[in-house]
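Record format v2
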Amino acid sequence: MAKDKKMVESITSMSEDFAQWYTDVVKKAELCDYASVKGCMVIKPAGYAIWEKIQKELDRRFKETGVENVYMPIFIPESLLQKEKDHVEGFAPEVAWVTHGGLEPLQERMCVRPTSETLFCDFYAKDIHSYRDLPRVYNQWCSVVRWEKTTRPFLRSREFLWQEGHTAHATAEEAEARTQQMLNLYADFCEEVLAIPVVRGQKTDKEKFAGAEATYTIEALMHDGKALQSGTSHNFGDGFAKAFEIQYAAKDNSLQYVHQTSWGMSTRIIGALIMVHGDDNGLVLPPKIAPVQIMIVPVQQQKEGVLEKAQELKERLMKAGFSVKVDDSDKSPGWKFADCEMRGIPLRVEIGPKDMEKNQAVLVRRDNHEKTFISLDELEEKTGEMLDTIQKALYDKAKAHVEAHTYEAAEWDEFVDTINNKPGFVKAMWCGCKECEEKIKEVTGATSRCMPFKQEQLSDKCVCCGKPAKKMVYWGRAY
Amino acid sequence: MAKDKKMVESITSMSEDFAQWYTDVVKKAELCDYASVKGCMVIKPAGYAIWEKIQKELDRRFKETGVENVYMPIFIPESLLQKEKDHVEGFAPEVAWVTHGGLEPLQERMCVRPTSETLFCDFYAKDIHSYRDLPRVYNQWCSVVRWEKTTRPFLRSREFLWQEGHTAHATAEEAEARTQQMLNLYADFCEEVLAIPVVRGQKTDKEKFAGAEATYTIEALMHDGKALQSGTSHNFGDGFAKAFEIQYAAKDNSLQYVHQTSWGMSTRIIGALIMVHGDDNGLVLPPKIAPVQIMIVPVQQQKEGVLEKAQELKERLMKAGFSVKVDDSDKSPGWKFADCEMRGIPLRVEIGPKDMEKNQAVLVRRDNHEKTFISLDELEEKTGEMLDTIQKALYDKAKAHVEAHTYEAAEWDEFVDTINNKPGFVKAMWCGCKECEEKIKEVTGATSRCMPFKQEQLSDKCVCCGKPAKKMVYWGRAY
């Protein structure tokens, strides 16, 4: 097998060069590729199938909370983008501008949406009249464009896929509840489905979304100790409503402004999946998000009955609700094993003539390479149990990694030393000043990831300026 | 009820003004709305839910034939669009051009994709090396932009949603088989799911897709006798492969060009659904595509137990696999009945205190307003049968409409008279010359819709020029 294994092109090891390892995995697992269009991705079948599973599961969870899907135009006229002051400042420098339609110049240029708050607001201003029209809980699945200078597959690209929810409510309380509800939905999805533990918290004013009153975030820790913002939920209060004049007649006939939220998760999360679970053999996918959960590899497939047996097992497993493939290509078993591993398929089932004699198969876990011999009489039951075990093991391993790489620092020197020498989250107290955040970023490269909902009182003074502390913050370098 | 009915805003009747009727239905059934962005739509929840059902069913059928989903960039650099001569001529006049990224002008302008042949070709040229890499059967769900001058909701808008399949094959035969397979898939979907009968055939050279060797189409007939092209499938031969140098090493090691196809269906088909099945009370949706199949309307809902009973019926019907809602709003039953009809919900279930006494409910069909009393013991069975009956009745009615509005003409005067006075398809023989097609369009406004696969020999000479006929063609005015 060692010899065969080389037939699958090797990837850089994580410890040698994490960035190169990431690029290698993306490429060799055939998740995506660069396009001729600078900074844009081609998402290949293996990558898109993961996104489809993410969409399906998130969409189901959204709809359970009353979300309705809609579709808004791809273009935003410049005058519309400019209606909310903070918002335009945040986005105007990074949008793509359309100036010509067909052979004619446009009277007003339009940008390709970087996000659709302004379009939803424009629509809500016409569509909402009375308290009976509220709440509006709309979402759309689409692509957005942000003109980034440096790009990396999934993590930062000029176009990416996402969903963006935009809601309008009668009261501030209801908007706040929806903002938190969606953040928790994202967090539960990451933990239960993607097996990625996250820290739930609020962004500081410096890091919040352009135009928001409050931004909540979930932050995940990658294998290299860098953080990745994995989903955000914003409460806009009535700021956009005032800019766009979105008013409704209340029960007492008074005119009131609506309160709004927005929330999004993008293909970036596929980058998190890769960097949280992957290893030196390639991608590792949790069973609940793997497009192919089980790969059956026939051994000595030229022998009579082996391929037929492999097909029979496939049909049994599919009937039991798993997604299964048989690798009946003309490659060697060793090549197939390595290929399965590169693609992150959670469980491999090996079946050969000797196994058939003994009425058994071999199960091999992707996460820890553990082999188990099972009787074919228990095929469905044992594979199901094994997939559950893998899902849990991946979460536990990732959770242990976060815990082992979350530090505390009370003093400035200790803080700087930790950031510089121990990749991970650093918990430290903060006075609430933008100046301290800026100094920390300048000196260490770390940013405030969030003020976690679960606050702790590590000390009573700011780790940076020593003034009285207001909040405990998770700090870290981030993607 | 007559009085209550007025509470639901009335719509223009079809016979009075079909175009206005269409606009009214789109608006009152809340399918879509105009956006501030000229020529673009806001697809509202009721419209988007139909699109989601179309997507789900088409995607399932695609995947059964081996289709894999991917995602290509939204932008096409100008030089890429220009690689295939016919293609650029067809599309360049109607694209939106991006000239600036952020604050900087681009070195090369890019258009927002009007269709993605060039992007797939560019990708395939890098990605396909050997016969082992073939076939490639990729599809993407996305939005495209075409800078139309006049627009109508769903039928013609500057941005629309669609899927576009793009395949590459080793042989011409395989490409041709895939082109026909996908056309038949679209036709079966329209007939089985949307209850829309279609004519399957080939486009003339004048009407085929820019860059294609052959374009196949399905043509549906709207209630007003105008045709709507409802899905197309193109065989490109090796034309694009030569322009983009997409070659593979064959088994004998010779370098060969691939043969390609593309095929698409768009949100336009929602326009067809409206115009084939709708009536003067609003939208009529076939049960297999209706996001809500059954609306339960409680009568005298203030009476004890009525709302509870309605909820109980809803749960029973949902458990049986139907999509069901209860209208428990504070509107009158008459208002609710009219509202259900406007939205095209296939079946209404009425339940009141008297029905409860008799252990019965009233089923009312949307398509023909027929009422049936059923015992609650048979609720699931009878509603299921009724939905099947409605699905079939809608198809039969539409089929009868096509048959009643399909004419034949052997002579020029008869042809012109039929086109001018009898809205529908006119079958007539054609010599194969572009000049005759142009003359017919100029004189009658009708275009060649397709050369149907089922050819008939109506006469031996062209209806226009009298020269020997080559093909029987369906002619008609079209959307």
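Chain A touches chain B through 51 residues (CB under 8 Å).
The mean pLDDT of chain A is 96.
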